[in-house]
């Protein structure tokens, strides 16, 4: 017989006796290499989320500077923003590790696979938060640092701990945290807030529900199994499609408001109108496919999800290009 006292799970930074996880592959069962360690910690920060957040930060800096901002300032804002977003993601992974372990989309993350211990991950999250604050205070400005900390705290306490498991409106209001990069990019250059970044903040706010609900529709069984009341879990697909269309129309309308508010050239409004029209077509197609079926193979929610990523990316590229091409 196997002696239970000899069975251990090796974490990065911790060994816990008496626990066996048979799904761990052969590589995980041995000693972790430095590459395993780095990959595990990097994975906790959700790099793809960081990329998307920075994509809404840097273009706003170009717009605020009406040209190319100081590259040192851009670098400091990017580093500080990446540390802050990474920190929030780490805390999210720690808190949600119980449901992450049960969901297909998330069960290969570092904590469900027991590559990193919760304690080590918490320390990592606090270190990233401290580094973010230090970088933004030292090389950007206090307002940007405060906004970054606010976004981090709201994502962890507001969305992850309070809203996510309690209400279908979780991503609507929890998504506010993802809107802050527009404010941070503006204040990094100007040192103050104005209506211009608030409009861009609102664009991301209304973009978030269609983007997230499309993904949640694809993985609605996962969310249902762990009792997370995402809208696609508690409402039929046709209602999800209707809500996606409503938010999409408001998002496109708000995106066009930037033209008169900021006095842009024609590059931005033309791009916003074209991109918005394409997005609305995809949103209406999703709704049309969802009206008479719950079959995800027919609804194809990931089409809208990928289209939403492309929409936001190109819209903020237009934000950056407008002052460069209309001077």
What does this protein structure show overall?
With about 325 residues, the chain is mainly α. It has 17 helices and 2 strands. The protein has helices at about 25-30, 35-45, 45-55, 60-65, 70-95, 95-100, 120-140, 140-165, 170-175, 180-190, 195-220, 220-225, 230-235, 235-260, 265-290, 295-300, 300-325; strands spanning about 10, 15. Strands 1-2 form a two-stranded antiparallel sheet. Helix 7 (about 120-140) runs antiparallel to helix 8. The protein is flat.
Main sheet attributes: strand count, strand direction, barrel closure: 2 strands, antiparallel
Shape: flat
Radius of gyration: 21 Å
Strand tally is: 2
Uncertain residue ranges: 1-30
Number of helices: 17
Arithmetic mean of pLDDT:
90
Residue fraction in strands: under 5%
Give the SSE order as H and E letters: EEHHHHHHHHHHHHHHHHH
**Helical proportion, percent range:** over 70%
Strands of the widest sheet, in order across it, are 1-2
Oligomerization status of the protein chains = single chain
Structural class: mainly alpha
The span between the termini is 78 Å
Task: Describe the SSE topology.
Layout: E1 8-11, E2 14-17, H1 26-29, H2 34-44, H3 47-55, H4 58-65, H5 71-95, H6 97-100, H7 118-139, H8 142-163, H9 170-174, H10 180-190, H11 195-218, H12 220-225, H13 231-234, H14 237-262, H15 267-290, H16 296-299, H17 301-325
Antiparallel strand pairs: 1-2
Helix pairs in contact: 3-5, 4-10, 4-17, 5-7, 5-8, 5-10, 7-8, 8-10, 10-11, 11-14, 11-17, 14-15, 15-17
């Amino acid at each position: 017989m196997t002696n239970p006292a000899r069975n251990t799970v090796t974490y990065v930074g911790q060994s816990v006796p008496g626990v066996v996880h048979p799904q761990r592959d052969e590589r995980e069962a041995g000693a972790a290499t430095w590459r395993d360690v780095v990959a595990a910690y990097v994975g906790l920060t959700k790099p793809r989320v960081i990329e998307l957040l920075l994509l809404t930060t840097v273009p706003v800096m170009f717009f605020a500077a009406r040209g190319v901002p100081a590259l040192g300032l851009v670098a400091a804002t990017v580093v500080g923003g990446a540390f802050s977003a990474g920190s929030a993601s780490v805390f999210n992974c720690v808190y949600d590790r119980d449901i992450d372990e049960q969901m297909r989309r998330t069960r290969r993350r570092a904590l469900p696979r027991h590559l990193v211990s919760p304690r080590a991950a918490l320390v990592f999250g606090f270190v990233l938060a401290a580094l973010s604050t230090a970088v933004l205070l030292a090389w950007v400005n206090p307002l940007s640092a405060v906004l970054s900390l606010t976004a981090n705290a709201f994502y962890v306490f507001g969305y992850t701990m309070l809203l996510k498991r309690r209400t279908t409106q979780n991503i609507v209001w929890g998504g506010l945290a993802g809107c802050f990069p527009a404010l941070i990019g503006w204040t990094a250059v100007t040192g103050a807030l104005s209506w211009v970044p608030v409009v861009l903040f609102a664009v991301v706010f209304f973009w978030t529900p269609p983007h997230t609900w499309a993904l949640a529709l694809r993985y609605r069984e996962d969310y249902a199994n762990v009792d997370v009341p995402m809208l696609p879990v508690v409402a039929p697909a046709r209602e999800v499609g209707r809500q996606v269309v409503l938010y999409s129309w408001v998002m496109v309308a708000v995106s066009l408001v930037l033209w008169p508010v900021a006095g842009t050239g024609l590059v931005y409004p033309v791009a916003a109108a074209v991109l918005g029209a394409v997005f609305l077509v995809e949103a209406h197609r999703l709704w049309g496919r969802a009206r008479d079926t719950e079959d995800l193979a027919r609804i194809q929610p990931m089409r809208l999800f990928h289209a939403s990523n492309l929409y936001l990316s190109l819209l903020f590229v237009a934000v950056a290009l407008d002052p460069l091409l209309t001077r």
